[in-house]
Amino acid sequence: MNVRASSLLVLALVAAIAAGAAACGGGDAGQPNASAAVTRCPASAVVGWRQVSRRAGIPVYCPAWLPSPLEPTIDRGDTPGAENATVAFSRDGSYLVSWIWAEAQTGEVHVILRGYPNRTTIPTCVLTGSGSSASARHRVPCFADPHGTITVGDVHATLYTVNQGADQWHLLYAWRHAGSLYTISQHVAAPLGVTQVKADLHRMLQNLVTVDAAS
DSSP class of residue 178? Predict the structure, then answer.
């Protein structure tokens, strides 16, 4: 990842987050209400999430709401899309569930949920240097530059603004539950700016439902 580009993104995100806080008198824009009504995982999604839970060996979080036009179902088709999540597992047992919608001249909506079974530390990603050091490879945290926390129910999540891999250019919230690490992220891309993406993430956090293989 280009260091200058990363720095510019961080400055833009910090400015937008700070502006949102100032507009709310110093509070967290879009802060979820911890007493929000209990939601349910959509019936069309439960089977898919149970399969993810069974393979990962841990409870998983089903999003009962996703930003339009995404649909909170898991359809393991060949082509990822608004109603067709990509589900992938890594060698370490971690999983990634991704929805993406893109339209020329309009923009993109991309949401990712991850789970890291039986680990609570932030994973590392390999970066390759640029210029004369193009062959240099070094490890950095996959999620970095924390900007505050938010609590919704039993989820106490930290916001990260510099992320790598599939989460690059995303705002990402990470939290720990029962000895495992979980994340949810959304791409900051037209037509959605930082303020709207942050509000979307807050609403998704409000509507996460725990699912396990036996539920």
Answer: T
- The Cα 96–Cα 49 span in angstroms is 12
DSSP designation for 117? T
| pLDDT on residue 84 | 72
Q: Which residues pair with 184 in a beta bridge?
A: 113, 173
Segment-wise mean pLDDT, segments of 10 residues, the chain, 215 residues: 44 46 36 54 91 95 95 67 80 94 90 98 87 71 97 96 97 98 97 96 97 84
What is d(CA 159, CA 167) in angstroms, rounded to the nearest whole number? 13
How is 17-70 classified by DSSP, letter by letter? HHHHHHHTTTS-TTPPPTTPPP----HHHHHHHHHHHHHHTS-EEEES--STT-
Instruction: Please state at what angle helix 194-206 crosses helix 3-23, rounded to 10 degrees.
Output: 70
pTM of the full structure: 0.80
Q: Name the DSSP class of 73.
A: -
| DSSP H helical ranges for the chain | 3-23, 43-56, 194-206
